[in-house]
Amino acid sequence: MKTDIHVCWTIDCESTQPGIENPNLGSRATKGFAELISSAKLKATLFVIPSDAVVYSALLCELAGEDFEIGLHYHPQAAGYDDFCGAYTADQQRKMYSEAIKLFSDTLGFAPKTFRMGSGSANDATFPVMAELGFESCSDSFPGRNMTNLKSNWLGAPLHVHYAHPANRLLEGGLDLVEVPITTDPDSMMWSGKHPQDLRVELFDAKNQRYMIDKILGREKQRPQSVKAIVTLTHNLFEYDDAGDFRTQTAKQMIADFAELADKHEINLIPATIGDIAAAYRKTVPLAT
Ligand SMILES: [Zn+2]
Question: Average pLDDT, stretch 264-274?
Answer without folding.
Answer: 98
